[in-house]
């Protein structure tokens, strides 16, 4: 079941707020060990994907379908916000949020290429006639 663009925008906004609130409520638990601070960076990358989804859906609503996110300002701004939110939990969370977010961005890009990319046409070499 897929959601409409508007509903997807609202859901990604709500899920990002819930994730941020969960990170803030569990701040002491996340800061208690090294592995959990890395988990905090992973949660920051989830916030990045949710913010990017919300931003792109809002742009599709306002500017029409087919509008694509660019590196600047959409992706850069969403990554900056996610890293700041993670950094408020623990500095290591903010640092590890960056590679996790870049990997998530790569995965989202690959998924979009598979779903919406143009199919590759096999190239056919022209046949040349032999001269006698």
From TrEMBL:
The protein's location, in the record's own words, is: Membrane
- UniProt cross-references to Pfam families, sorted A to Z: Keratin_assoc (PF09775)
Mark the transmembrane ranges: 36-54, 66-89
| One term under GO cellular component | membrane
- State the UniProt keywords alphabetically: Membrane, Transmembrane, Transmembrane helix
- Put simply, this protein is called Keratinocytes-associated protein 2
Membrane topology of the entry: Multi-pass membrane protein
The organism named in the record is Paragonimus heterotremus
Which family is this protein grouped under? Answer: Belongs to the KRTCAP2 family.
Q: Keyword Membrane: yes or no?
A: yes
Whether Iron counts among this entry's keywords is: no
């Amino acid at each position: 079941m897929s959601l409409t663009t508007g509903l997807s925008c609202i859901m990604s906004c709500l899920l990002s707020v819930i994730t941020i609130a969960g990170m803030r409520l569990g701040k002491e638990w996340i800061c208690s060990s090294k592995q959990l601070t890395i988990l905090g960076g992973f949660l920051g990358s989830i916030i990045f994907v949710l913010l990017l989804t919300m931003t792109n859906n809002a742009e599709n609503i306002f500017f029409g379908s087919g509008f694509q996110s660019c590196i600047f300002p959409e992706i850069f701004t969403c990554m900056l916000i996610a890293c700041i939110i993670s950094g408020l939990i623990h500095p290591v969370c903010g640092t590890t949020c960056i590679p996790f977010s870049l990997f998530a961005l790569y995965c989202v890009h690959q998924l979009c290429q598979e779903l919406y990319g143009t199919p590759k046409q096999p190239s056919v070499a022209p046949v040349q006639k032999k001269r006698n």
